[in-house]
């Protein structure tokens, strides 16, 4: 029976807003255009400009191995593939009404879902902190009259306010922010293509799939949070389309713009913002990108709160959001996040094969048969953990990341297996496929064994 406290919370909450706890039903109020605007805004990031260099497949010395033109094509291919994966992660949330980490109860069981939940909380806190630092540094590029800590605190405050009314924030993005961002993108495209660009075909196509994998990895970094928003979608088809198309289109636009800016500064990543700031009205339009970056930190903080609710279902998300907003602000003031980037990438790699397991089981296995149990008593399913582990191992064999001791361990495994990654291998794509195939094979083997026992 619902307690008096829970009834009071439900009465206080606006009908079109996210419930305060997991005990309350999620309202289905987000239409296709609300969701499209949300994902489109997440596809445009300051990191897309500064991080565009990664799709040029830099070598061990940091020199690009791909031509700018090859990098653009690789980025488009990787983004489209990553967008489709994002759509696959979005649809189950709309169909079940459950947030991302709660969905994993149906995949692994209630208790085993705590493992990816804790990993997700760790990476989201890291990315939320990183976003505040990015906002502060970009704001100081515009005007250094305010100390860095002032920008960090301001960004943290805006982030926290947005997380208190998350669905209202999504609607705000659709009505105002998306239009401003699109105007700024068009303006900068016009300004940059008028500049004397170097030969974009100078270079190689040899590391094409390395560049594609870099773009794909950025797209699927949102996979562990997709259902946190699409559980409020009016339809699963709309959720899939909005996430896959809305995000992919704007990420492609933003990365191409970043690559053009990088070409104009001769590949100097420290000066990648210069082409934006040195054109007429550049500071005004660049300020739109800086302010818009708050939706990235908002998404990270809100999804952290919802992930914690998988561990503590009756925790009030408003209290969690405020505590997390304060926490990442303190971390942004105290930490050098560059030392954490490799660890964040390592954590993120666990969610690529996890999506492979989820997609296979939800669309082709138990989810298709209506047997998806996301309750607090869902039984443990160790076979799905095994499939996840197989996919994770495939990822690490191809790309173990930059955390030195971890990478050394996987190099020893490679040597023992006499395995050498090839240039065409995408760690993200192949680990997704391996994990999905392992899920189906284990499921079929279990079903065949069950039928054999029944006959005997």
UniProtKB/TrEMBL annotation:
Keyword rRNA-binding: no
One of the record's GO molecular function terms: cytosine transmembrane transporter activity
Pfam families documented for this protein: Transp_cyt_pur
Domain of life assignment: Bacteria
GO CC entries: plasma membrane
Biased composition (Basic and acidic residues): 1-16
Subcellular compartments: Membrane
Topology of this chain in the membrane: Multi-pass membrane protein
Membrane-spanning ranges: 38-56, 68-91, 112-136, 148-168, 175-193, 205-227, 239-266, 272-291, 319-337, 343-364, 385-403, 423-447
Region (Disordered): 1-20
Keywords: Membrane, Transmembrane, Transmembrane helix
Homology family: Belongs to the purine-cytosine permease (2.A.39) family.
Protein name: Cytosine/purines uracil thiamine allantoin permease
Organism: Actinomadura verrucosospora
């Amino acid at each position: 029976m619902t307690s008096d406290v829970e009834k009071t919370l439900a009465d206080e909450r606006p009908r079109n807003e996210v419930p305060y706890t997991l005990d309350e039903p999620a309202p289905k109020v987000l239409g296709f255009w609300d969701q499209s605007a949300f994902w489109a805004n997440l596809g445009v990031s300051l990191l897309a400009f500064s991080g565009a260099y990664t799709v040029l497949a830099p070598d061990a010395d940091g020199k690009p191995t791909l031509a700018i033109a090859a990098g653009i094509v690789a980025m488009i291919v990787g983004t489209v593939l990553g967008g489709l994966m994002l759509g696959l992660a979005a649809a189950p949330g709309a169909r079940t009404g459950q947030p991302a980490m709660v969905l994993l109860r149906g995949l692994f069981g209630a208790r085993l879902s705590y493992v990816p939940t804790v990993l997700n909380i760790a990476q989201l806190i890291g990315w939320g902190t990183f976003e505040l630092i990015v906002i502060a540094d970009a704001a100081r590029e515009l005007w250094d009259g305010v100390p860095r800590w002032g920008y960090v605190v301001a960004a943290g405050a805006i982030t926290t306010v947005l997380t208190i009314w998350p669905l209202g924030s999504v609607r705000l993005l659709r009505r105002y922010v998306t239009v401003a961002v699109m105007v700024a993108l068009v303006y900068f495209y016009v300004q940059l293509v008028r500049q004397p660009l170097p030969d974009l075909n100078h270079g190689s196509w040899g590391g094409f799939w390395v560049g594609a994998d870099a773009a794909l990895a950025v797209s699927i970094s949102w996979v562990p949070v997709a259902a946190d928003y699409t559980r409020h979608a009016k339809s699963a088809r709309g959720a899939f389309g909005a996430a896959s198309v809305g995000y992919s289109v704007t990420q492609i636009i933003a990365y191409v713009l970043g690559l053009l800016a990088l070409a104009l500064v001769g590949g100097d990543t420290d000066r990648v913002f210069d082409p934006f700031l040195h054109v007429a009205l550049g500071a005004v339009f660049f300020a739109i990108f800086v302010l818009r970056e708050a939706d990235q930190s908002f998404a990270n903080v809100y999804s952290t709160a919802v992930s914690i609710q998988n561990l503590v279902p009756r925790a009030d998300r408003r209290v969690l959001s405020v505590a997390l907003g304060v926490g990442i602000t303190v971390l942004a003031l105290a930490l050098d996040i560059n030392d954490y980037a490799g660890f964040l990438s390592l954590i993120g790699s666990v969610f690529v094969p996890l999506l492979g397991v989820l997609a296979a089981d939800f669309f082709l296995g138990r989810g298709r048969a209506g047997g998806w149990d996301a309750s607090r008593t869902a039984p443990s399913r160790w076979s799905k953990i095994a499939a996840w582990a197989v996919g994770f191992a495939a990822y690490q064999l191809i790309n173990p990341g930059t955390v030195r001791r971890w990478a050394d361990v996987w190099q020893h495994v490679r040597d023992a297996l006499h395995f050498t990654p090839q240039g065409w291998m995408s760690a993200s794509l192949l680990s997704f496929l391996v994990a999905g195939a392992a899920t189906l094979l284990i499921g079929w083997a279990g079903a065949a064994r069950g039928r054999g026992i029944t006959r005997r």
